Amino acid sequence: MNAGEKRRALPTNLIHVERRLSEVLIVDADGIVRYDNLAARHLIGTDERTLVGRPFGLPIGEDVAQVIEIVDREGVVQSVDMRVARYAGSDFAGAEVWAVTLRPSATAAADTSAVDDQLARLDDAMSVTYHELGNAVAGISAGLTVLREAWPDLEDEDRLQRVARIERAATGMALHLKSYLDASRIESGVFEPRPTPHKLLDLVLEHLPDLGARAAEVEVQVSAHVTVDMDATHCWSILSNFIRNALKHGAHPITLRAATVGPETLVVVTDHGQGVPAAHVGRLFERFGTTGPAEPMSSSGLGLWIASTMASAYGGRVWYERNAPTGSRFCARLPAVSPEVRDLLD
Q1: C-beta neighbour count of 282 within 10 angstroms
Q2: Is residue 235 situated within a structural domain?
Q3: Domain containing 163: what range?
Q4: How far apart are CA 225 and CA 222, in angstroms?
Q5: Measuring CA to CA, which residue among 302, 308, 310, 319 is closest to residue 268?
Q6: Burial of 252 per CB tally in 10 Å (0-12, 13-18, 19+)
Q7: In angstroms, rounded to a whole number, what is the distance separating the alpha carbons of residues 224 and 54?
Q8: How many other C-beta atoms can be found within 10 angstroms of the C-beta atom of residue 183?
Q9: What number of other Cβ atoms are within 10 A of residue 227's Cβ?
C-alpha cells in the first residue's frame, strides 16, 4: 500500500479547522526584507515579484507581540498581529535577522474561535496528563499574578514582553491539547489527514515565535524549495516535539535540516547531548513511554508519541538515531508536494 492509499483508507468523524499559513518575512538589522512568502506579498500589496531588498518600514522588537496597521493592496487599512523571533538560519550565517509573522487580526480571531469551538466538542479533553497541561496552567497563573502586582511599576515595553510570554504559553498549551486529541483520534481510527501543500520554511518561520527566546538556539537549514503535503498544525506537531526535546534534553549545537527527495521530505533535528540510553530507545515513541524519573531524558512520554502518530497518519514515519560522536538525531519522512503543485507555491 502506498502513502496515498494509506491516507485515504482512514475514516473520519473529526471536526477539522481549515487554516492557511501566515504571511512571513525575514528582516535584517537594517530593516531590509531578506525573505518573503507569497502570502506576505499579497497582504502588503506589492505588484513586484518579491519584497526582498525593500525596507520593512517598521521597528523590530524581539519577543514582543504587537498589533500594527498596514495598507493592503486594495488601499484598505488593516490591523495585523505581528510576532517576531530571532532567526538562526544557515542562509544568513553571521547576520542578525528576525523571523516576522504577520496575520490579519480578523483572520487570527476567526481561527481562534474555530479552534475553541472544536475543542469544546471533544469529550476527552480531560484525558491529557496533568504533567503536560497542569504545569502550563500553573505557569500562566503565576505569570498573571506577577504581572498584576508589578503592573504600576512596569514600562509599556516590559508589560508587552510579559504579556507576550503568557500568550505564548497559552498558545502552546492549546496546540498541545489539540495535537494530543488528534493523535488519540488517529490511534482510534477516527481521523482523516488533510494533505495541504506548504513550503516547509514558511511553516517553520511562522511557528518559531512559539519557542520564544530559544528560537535563536536552533540553526535552521531548510531551503525555500523543501515542501510538505500536510496540515500545517500537524506538521508543526512533529517538528516542535523534536525541537523541544532537543532543547530540553540535548546540547548545542541544535540543527533542523530538511530536504525533499522525490515524493518525500526528510526532516532531521540533531543535538549534541548525551543521547538516549540504549535501554530506552525501543520505547521512545510509545504513549507514556517515559525513561524513568532518575534519567536525564525523563518526560511524560507524550510528545514523541504524538510526533510518531501524526507522521504515520500521513503515510510517513519517525525514528531515532544516535548522533556521532555524541547526541541524538530525531528523523521523520513526510509526504512532499508534487513538482506541479510546488511551482504554484512561489
Answers
A1: 11
A2: yes
A3: 125-188
A4: 8
A5: 319
A6: middle
A7: 19
A8: 23
A9: 25
CATH number of the structural domain spanning residue 261? 3.30.565.10
- Look at residue 88 and tell me if it is in a domain: yes
Q: How far apart are CA 180 and CA 174, in angstroms?
A: 10
**Residue 269 clears pLDDT 90, i.e. is over it:** yes
Q: Which one-letter amino acid corresponds to residue 165?
A: R
3-state SS, 157-185, equals HHHHHHHHHHHHHHHHHHHHHHHHHHHHH
pTM: 0.70
Of 135, 164, 188, the last residue of a domain is 188
Total number of residues shown for the chain: 346
Helix (H, G, I), strand (E, B) or coil at 55: strand
Q: Is residue 248 within 8 Å of residue 276, measured between CB atoms?
A: no
**102 phi and psi, to 5 degrees?**
-115, 135
Relative orientation angle of helices 105-121 and 156-188, to the nearest 10 degrees: 40
One-letter amino acid identity for 36? D
In this predicted structure, the answer to whether residue 13 has a pLDDT above a threshold of 50 is no
For 72-107, how does the pLDDT look when each residue is reduced to its tens digit (9 = 90+)?
777 778 888 888 888 988 888 778 898 988 888 766
